[in-house]
Write a structure and sequence with these properties.
- With 291 residues, this protein is mostly helical.
- The protein folds into 2 domains: 64 residues; 200 residues, f41 fragment of flagellin, N-terminal domain, CATH 1.20.1330.
- A hairpin with a 2-residue loop joins strand 1 and strand 2.
- Helix 1 runs antiparallel to helix 8, helix 2 runs antiparallel to helix 3 and helix 3 runs antiparallel to helix 5.
- The two termini are 24 Å apart.
């Protein structure tokens, strides 16, 4: 077969074009940090990347959900702590007022403080987080307790938030166990008796009732603490999953920078050699050809 100058020229130009294409590919990898820039570069890597990215997106959403869970639980626990302190103070005052040596005006003064504590307990029951009432079940737009101590509703529905695949955690507490109508009615009666001249023995009868309310608060807070501990374990697991998912996605898509630099430098050397060889093959002028 006769090899002509045109054939040599065309082959060299095709080789140079392929060389430019390979250099462009390596330069793009270094620029983007990714193995591929379009699905057609490697369909398998592209498909796996979609799956891995979907998984990572889900995990990131679970992390955001966990932040919301902590927001609810931390505020609920803080509110229950304050409510328990209020009831402990009410009990201390009831113990003082049950002392037979206290006079009527002294018990009336104690009644004033208990009334203030009752109002403070109402404000605790109406705690809001990001504009949501956290002690009214799923009805987060309505205050659970009116200013006069009337409970507006008995919504005890659980507020569940998904924290992992198929795992939901209840973030609220049962309002009826901590801020029921009974607790506000009992405090109101206690205030009336303190101001109405009840005897120390009559005031002492409230101690058992107050203890019952305190026990309900402590029990609900203990249950909340148990769920909080589980959330912390789930958070640790989700954090590990995020690290793994990020690493897998990186292994699938991210380019090995050292390898890409070596490939680019090697291709540049090959390209220069091809240009040098081409300069000898392609005769730019008739005089060069005659030589």
């Amino acid at each position: 077969m006769r090899v002509t100058q045109g054939m040599l020229t065309n082959n060299m130009l095709n080789s140079l074009s392929n060389s430019y294409e390979r250099m462009a590919k390596y330069q793009e990898q270094l620029h983007t940090g990714k193995k591929i820039s379009r699905p057609s570069d490697d369909p398998v890597v592209a498909m796996k990347g979609m799956e891995y990215r979907t998984n990572l997106t889900e995990i990131e959403q679970f992390n955001r959900n966990l932040s919301e869970v902590y927001n609810w639980m931390d505020n609920s626990d803080a509110a229950l702590d304050k409510a328990t302190q209020v009831m402990h103070r009410v009990r201390e005052l009831a113990v003082k007022a049950s002392n037979g040596t206290y006079e009527e005006n002294q018990r009336a003064a104690i009644g004033e403080e208990v009334e203030q504590l009752r109002e403070h307990l109402i404000s605790i029951a109406n705690t809001q987080v990001a504009g949501k009432y956290i002690f009214n079940g799923t009805n987060t737009v309505e205050a659970p307790v009116a200013e006069d101590g009337t409970v507006n509703g008995t919504n005890t529905s659980a507020v569940n938030i998904e924290v992992s695949k198929g795992i939901e955690i209840r973030v609220n507490v049962n309002q009826q166990n901590v801020f029921s109508q009974d607790i506000f009615n009992d405090l109101e009666k206690l205030v009336e008796d303190l101001k109405g001249g009840a005897t120390g023995e009559g005031i002492g009868e409230y101690l058992g009732t107050i203890d019952g309310h305190v026990d309900n608060m402590l029990a609900e807070r203990a249950e909340l603490g148990a769920r909080y501990n589980r959330v912390e374990m789930i958070e640790e697991r989700v954090s590990q999953q995020e690290v793994i998912a990020t690493r897998v996605l990186s292994d699938n898509e991210d380019v090995d920078m050292e390898k890409a630099i070596i490939n680019l430098k090697t291709q540049e050397t090959i390209h220069r050699a091809a240009l040098a060889a081409g300069a000898r093959i392609i005769q730019p002028t008739l005089m060069d050809f005659l030589r």
